[in-house]
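DM from R.C. (forwarded with permission)

"hey, sorry to bug you on a friday — could you get me a structure for this? deadline for the figure draft is monday and I only need the backbone to look sensible"
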Amino acid sequence: MQVVRADGFDRLEPIERALALPAEAQPVPGPVEYPLVMVEWHDAWFDFDLAGPDEARQDYVVRTVGFLVGDGPRFVSIAQEVLPDGEGFRAVSHIPLPIIERLVHLAPGGGLVTA
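My reply, with the result:
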């Protein structure tokens, strides 16, 4: 058995304090390298209870929100986390372009970027 100490947890600020600050007062850590986007796309879907492929859902559109880290000729890559000091990304989804319905750039503050 390994014992892991929880030192430092008492130094975290309560979430209520972070939520109480207006958006313009919260510091943003450096320039935005990867825009925040929402991708609507057709995901694979199946159900073991279905008798055959004719009963499968044909329209299963899901939404993924994250940092746009790749926009290549075949895939759009969306990361849930950008690691510090250029160490890369975590939880990256690679979505093939032919199944994408829509890609929307999200503006700071929760709005949409109009192009």
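R.C.: lifesaver. The radius of gyration is 20 Å.
me: no worries. The CA atoms of residues 81 and 90 lie 5 Å apart.
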